Task: inverse folding
């Protein structure tokens, strides 16, 4: 039953991510990223992929913090970035069990880089790279539907990059 619920969440989370990357407004992108990370974190927890789950739950908190600044039209304080990095590294080291868990640390760093961007174009490009690594991690941890839908996310991101960043130049 846990496996089935995880696979269903593996459809919901990446589907939300596919939708989120099509938004032009950073506030909307970040709100969706909160839901995405929460959903995928629960999925990975159910699959005993603790390193990935922990990274996702930390990403929820990081994204909410960033969103609160943007919502109030305040500049994001750069002093948060080293805090995000340190917390993510400690969590990655703490939850490290096997070589594949290194990918979650790399993904955490890419995620931090994406949510701290001021330009949506950069968010899309970094997210594309991040999802590529998550696909490998998900396949390794039996998150098959998540990996499949993340391929859809890659396609959606490529379309958004073309639509917003190349075509409208």
Result:
């Amino acid at each position: 039953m846990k496996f089935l619920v995880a696979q269903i969440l593996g459809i919901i989370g990446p589907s939300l991510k596919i939708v989120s990357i099509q938004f032009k407004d950073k506030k909307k992108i970040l709100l969706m990223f909160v839901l995405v990370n929460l959903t995928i974190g629960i999925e990975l927890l159910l699959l005993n992929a603790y390193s990935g789950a922990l990274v996702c739950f930390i990403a929820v908190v990081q994204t909410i913090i960033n969103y609160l600044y943007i919502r109030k039209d305040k500049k994001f304080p750069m002093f948060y970035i080293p805090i995000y990095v340190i917390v993510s590294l400690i969590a990655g080291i703490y939850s490290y069990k096997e070589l594949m868990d290194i990918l979650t640390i790399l993904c955490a760093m890419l995620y931090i880089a994406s949510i701290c961007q001021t330009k949506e174009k950069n968010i899309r490009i970094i997210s594309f790279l991040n999802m590529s690594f998550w696909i490998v991690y998900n396949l390794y941890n039996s998150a098959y539907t998540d990996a499949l839908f993340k391929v859809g996310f890659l396609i959606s991101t490529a379309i958004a990059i073309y639509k917003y960043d190349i075509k409208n130049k």
